[in-house]
Amino acid sequence: xxxxxxxxxxxxxxxxxxxxxxxxxxxxxxxxxxxxxxxxxxxxxxxxxxxxxxxxxxxxxxxxxxxxxxxxxxxxxxxxxxxxxxxxxxxxxxxxxxxxxxxxxxxxxxxxxxxxxxxxxxxxxxxxxxxxxxxxxxxxxxxxxxxxxxxxxxxxxxxxxxxxxxxxxxxxxxxxxxxxxxxxxxxxxxxxxxxxxxxxxxxxxxxxxxxxxxxxxxxxxxxxxxxxxxxxxxxxxxxxxxxxxxxxxxxxxxxxxxxxxxxxxxxxxxxxxxxxxxxxxxxxxxxxxx
Length: 290
What we know:
Layout: H1 5-13, H2 22-32, H3 68-81, H4 88-102, H5 136-144, H6 150-157, E1 164-166, H7 172-175, H8 189-198, E2 206-208, H9 220-226, H10 233-236, H11 242-253, H12 255-269
Antiparallel strand pairs: 1-2
Helix pairs in contact: 2-4, 9-11, 11-12
């Protein structure tokens, strides 16, 4: 892939950063934790379902993703200014970078030149996206299959410092944990009490992944895990493995290290399964195959 160059100039001119509202801050999670996409980083997660196909964005693991309309807005302006130049995959990568800066993350260079895919199948998210109940072993398998290390996995999990989760993603920890269908004993009791108020048994809704600073990109997500306040089982699992636990604790003690590592991991993940050259296409509407 090329450096931003002309593609980046076009994107910056159209103000992708200026459009990165709270919705696109949540889109950062789309890219960092779910942006591995079943087909690679080809913007397949932006495609809408059709009568004959359920797309990735409508698969259960992606049910809490938001911010698509901001990507649409940026793409519309880009097409008006430079038709057929900037792919949806690059727009998503630029938006994630700008969203990270807006919420307090480190800036980083985004290589450009990705092209878009036209295949998006919900079933292909199985095994490609980490479920909320994943163990460290399962997380390593999923991230490792994309060429990412365990360290990358722990770092990218830090995207959970912003955004929301469906109650259904963790309700078993409140009401149906273990053989006695009780509460997860690894979760701080006061946190359990607060969550049961927000998510009554059988109810829906959204809960911040980081209840302390849900719109700031910081290390409170990791501090929550250390305090047994990881919302998802996959979050709290990071404290149960000695190696991942050491990295979690290290980030709580060195926020600057986390910021540096996260930016590097974003660049690394942004190169997974990329289509370039004559492969793929440039969709004019990110929701529709071309």
